[in-house]
Amino acid sequence: MFTNIVISLKNALTFYVFNLLCSIMRYQLYFILFLSFFIAGSSIKANKNIILQLDTITVKKLADSSSHYAFTNSLKSITFGKKALELALKLKSLKSQSYAHMSLARAYYVKGEYENSLSHGSQLRKISKRINYGYGLAFAVNNAGLIYLGQEQHKLALEEFNKALELNKSLNNLVGQSSNLFNIALCEINFKNYEVAANRLQECLLISEKANPRVYIMAINRLGDVAYERKQWKEAMSFYEKALIENTIGDNWEKAYAYLGMSIVLYDKGSYKQSIANAEVALALLKQINAHWDMIRVYDILHKSSDKLGQYTKAYEYLKLYKTYNDSLYNEKKEKEINTLHLKQKAIENKELAQQVELRKQSNRVSQLIILVISVVVIFLTGGVIFILKNNRKISQLNKELTKGNEDIAEQRNQIAEQNVELERLNYSKDQLFSVIGHDLRSPITSIIQTVDLLRSNSLSIEETEYIYNSFFERLTATATMLDNLLLWVNNQKRETTIDRKNFLLPKLTEQLLLVLNFPANEKGVHINHQYQEDIWINADTNHVRVRIIIQNLVSNAIKFTPSGGNIYIHYFVKEDKVGIVIKDTGVGISKEKLGKLFHVMGKEISTYGTANEKGIGIGLMLVKKYADHNNAQVIVNSDESGAEFVVCFDRAN
Fold this sequence. Notes:
This protein is α+β, with helices and mostly antiparallel strands. It contains 21 helices and seven strands. The strands form two sheets. It has a five-stranded mixed sheet with strand order 2-4-5-7-6. Strands 1-3 form a two-stranded antiparallel sheet. The longest helix is centred in the middle third of the chain and has 70 residues, at 312-381. The mean pLDDT is 79.
């Protein structure tokens, strides 16, 4: 019996231990399975993080590549920037998007596409504010300043550069601060605030010597420019020499800039051989980097210095190179001006769109208000006469608000109409410019090409060659005058015009002009009688440019419309506060119909052929009127069959 009990206990204990071991093993299996799934999940998450980090690094590398090519290959720069932005948008990473927008804003600015640059700069500014990315915000503000600087809106550029400087100071970003200070100095140089510009450049030197070596060299060179503008030749040479010594980074552009600066100073000091030597070094460096803008300045100083030394063949060759490069850059400048016009037009369109949206909002508010009024009236009609009277008062008040709203809408429509007029004026100016270039310049240039081709054939006699040379000179002179007037007219389309005035002798200026104008007059057989008076002073444009253009155009017109054997008389009169110059010819006169259009119409409608079939472009008298207004002068015209008389009255000098 006892033995059976022991056996039963033993069996029961064995079964219990077996079950216990099975349970432990089952839980261990569950634990192992859980641990495996956890490790696998962690690996997947880790892999995703690694992939995300790699993609972010790729965006940064693409953006860096875009920045690297910004100044050397615009197409590559924009391509890398677009790839960076495309990947950043897929990642939905705002920081990566800021890198891409920054690279594209820089690339489009260098290319001169200001509208695209400003668009990416605006996106960069929004994202940087959202994620509190100070460096990106400072870059966007500085980029806006550079765009304003490219449009020659120096006041707006200066405001943006100062904002960027404050942002970079708060970030302790020395590289950004040095660039901002340099840009501020460029604006101050444009304003001729040379002392302020020098102070900003000195601040820039202190920061950039270690933080931004390239800007450091640039700042030294610009200090040389400031000293040159102040006529401090010795100090200017010292700064340019220092820029060469300190240029340990091998920046050929700034080396060339320093040599060119020394060449200009030496030319002004009369050291023409040394000027040429320095200019040739600058030219060799600039050719390596293909810097066309500075090459133009080098060819100009080489031409002038060679001319002073009597090396006329070299001077002529340098002059041809100067004209070739200058014409090329002139086309680039015009393209940037067109981009600027597009940017202005886009801004006006955006403003109009915003006003239209605001008008719709006001219209919706008015509609909602009317619905509310009607609802209130319907509800209160059931309440009796008292409620109706109260509602009538409310309706009266609402009508007043509606009237005021309508008045506001009418005022906004007037503003839109004024903006449309401004757009039409810009389009008219553009059409006039292309019309003159396409029609009036094509004919003389074609004629010049045909003349040169005829001379190259060597099939003409000496008399024929001499006759063609004289004719060729007349065509070149007429075309040059036409180009001068055209460029002056284009510059006058700019709204901002500031005039510095001083006292000078008017007859002396006229006498200088006649040294040139007597040649075409003598060629035509027209005699100019200038009654020279010594002591006639006027107060007008400091550089005499506008007064010179007024007299040059009036005398040129007199020569143009006076037949061979005719006379032109120039004399003066003095009143209490005015000095007048009178230019009278014995030519064909001006018809009554065209007298009414003078100073108001330009182009083909007003231009006519001269007595020797001379051709103009019809903008000369518009320039006369414009520059007379700039100098507070009045223009009076008298004409009959015996000729025309122009009288210009300037302010008399105190």
